[in-house]
Structures are given as structure tokens and as C-alpha cells.
Design brief:
alpha+beta, single chain, 4-stranded antiparallel beta sheet, binds glycine, 12 strands, Glutamine Phosphoribosylpyrophosphate, subunit 1, domain 1, 280 residues
Length: 280
């Protein structure tokens, strides 16, 4: 059976950094190459977690270290993991001062109550060994001081392993300048969903993604028999009709993949037995 992983680093036009496309290509290419090795050795869960940890750790991306800063000067991060094989969603909403929100989301997949929010998510992380970590960077502080009110960028990964398991993982620092307490799509099924047939991770404006229920809409269409490209395109076209801004990566049980967006350019890379491909 084929193995495949796709990762994304948001939509280029929603980023406000001076980074070049070459820097994104290099970062995403390195991460997807390493994550594909992990996929072959340890399966889809390990691979999506490794990919999102690496994306959270790179300041280039709006997740983990280098997350955007909210209106009150704080960083609050959201992340989720969806196990499509066992049908388990877990996530953290507005967690603070942890290095890798996605690993807290993964730890929560073992719990009866698998989505936690705010201070109590942070407290849960501390009580399960996640050390305090400062996610602020010089770049984001400058961006915040300039009064930046952002669109939204996200990171994510979807993977299919050689026993047919599909996983999706997504993480974000939010829009920047948002009202404290805002809930991102990234720790909801609208923005991060997988089942036994398809896995989807979204990026873009969370309110748009939630309002259209993007990932479950794609999954339902795929489950009801549409090809992956059609299931995604139909959903993107609905988003365009509402003037929404989002993109997504999707991967199905056959190993078919699709990357699409309502506008702009999704920053992605994918790896399979055929090699590595990036968004350029
Ligand atoms: N898509 C991430 C967010 O809107 O927060």
C-alpha cells in the first residue's frame, strides 16, 4: 500500500513576513522529507505529529514559537489531532506558554474529555509534563507593535500509512490582533478532520471555515462517492460564492491528494514513494 504525507504552512497572501518563497520551499521540503521517513517507519499518527511539531518550531510559521499576538498582547494557540482510523478528535483551544500545542492535543486523545480550552488546557499541559515555553519572537512583537490585524495562517499535515490509517493535525497562532477568547477553527472538526476514507487540514479565516464546515463537507462528499478533486472543488466553489478565504490539503484512502484554495497560494509540500513536491 502507498504512503503519502502532505503538509501546509498557511496561505502565502495571508502572511505578512518578509520571507521569500524559497525559504518556504526549503522549510516545507525539509519537514515533509523527514516526516515521510517517520511515516514509513512509525505510521501516520507519528508522521503528522512530527510534521506539525517541526512547523510549530519554525518561527517562519504562525503556530507554536512565532505565533501571532492577540489584541491584549498575549499569544494563545490552538491545535488538534484527528485519528481517522479510531475516529477520535482531540484538541486544545487558546493554550498558552507551551512549546508544542499539537503534542498536548495528542496527549488528550487518551482522555475521556479530549478537548480542553484556555487556562485549564494550560494547567492540564503542566500537570502532564509540558514545560513552560515562551512562544514570542522579535518579528511577531514588531508586527504587534505596528498594529497588525491579520488574516489567518495555520500549519497542518495529513498522512496515509501502509496499513491504511489516515490522520490529520492542525495548529495555529490565530489571526493576530484578535479579540482574546476568539476560538479558531484549527481545534474544531471544521478545520481538521479525518475518517477512514479521507483526511483534511484547513487554513485561512477560521470564521469562514467554521461557517461552511469545510472539512466535514469535503469528507461527506468523498464518502458519498465523489472523487477527491470534485469533493474539494465543490466545497471551494461554495466558499468563493460567500466571498470566503480559506485553503485546504486533503488525502484519501487511495493515496489521491488535493490542495486547493478560494484564492491565493497554499504553501504546501507532499511526499510519497514518488518523491517530494512543493507548491512552486
Ligand atoms: N485558521 C486559523 C484561524 O483562523 O485561527
Amino acid at each position: 500500500m502507498t504512503t503519502r504525507i502532505i503538509i501546509h504552512g498557511g496561505i502565502k497572501e495571508f502572511e505578512n513576513v518578509q520571507a521569500t518563497e524559497a525559504e518556504y520551499v526549503r522549510a516545507l521540503g525539509d519537514i515533509v522529507r523527514n516526516s515521510h521517513q517517520i511515516l514509513k517507519q512509525d505510521g501516520a499518527r507519528a508522521a503528522v505529529l512530527a510534521a506539525v511539531v517541526a512547523l510549530e518550531d519554525r518561527e517562519l510559521f504562525n503556530a507554536g514559537t512565532g505565533s501571532r499576538i492577540q489584541a491584549d498582547g498575549e499569544i494563545r494557540m490552538s491545535a488538534s489531532l484527528m485519528d481517522g482510523y479510531h475516529n477520535i478528535f482531540s484538541g486544545v483551544i487558546n493554550i498558552q506558554y507551551v512549546k508544542n500545542p499539537i503534542l498536548v492535543a495528542a496527549r488528550l486523545s487518551q482522555e475521556k474529555h479530549s478537548v480542553l480550552a484556555g487556562d485549564l488546557a494550560t494547567r492540564y499541559a503542566r500537570s502532564h509534563g509540558f514545560q513552560s515555553h515562551n512562544p514570542f519572537t522579535e518579528h511577531r512583537l514588531r508586527e504587534h507593535m505596528s498594529g497588525y490585524q491579520g488574516l489567518s495562517a495555520t500549519v497542518g499535515a495529513v498522512a496515509l500509512d501502509d496499513v491504511g490509517q489516515l490522520f490529520a493535525a492542525t495548529s495555529t497562532g490565530g489571526t493576530g490582533g484578535e479579540t482574546p477568547g476568539r476560538v479558531s477553527d484549527s481545534a474544531t472538526v471544521a478545520g481538521n478532520y479525518a475518517c477512514d476514507q479521507v483526511a483534511i487540514s484547513c487554513t485561512g479565516i477560521g470564521e469562514n471555515i467554521v461557517s461552511l464546515s469545510v472539512a466535514p463537507r469535503v469528507a461527506t462528499r468523498r464518502l458519498e462517492g465523489l472523487g477527491l478533486q470534485q469533493a474539494v472543488r465543490k466545497t471551494i466553489e461554495e466558499g468563493v460564492r460567500y466571498g470566503y478565504h480559506f485553503g485546504l490539503i486533503a488525502l484519501d484512502q487511495n493515496g489521491d491528494c488535493c490542495i486547493d484554495q478560494t484564492q491565493g497560494k497554499t504553501l504546501f509540500a507532499e511526499a510519497s514513494e514518488q518523491g517530494v513536491r512543493t507548491f512552486t
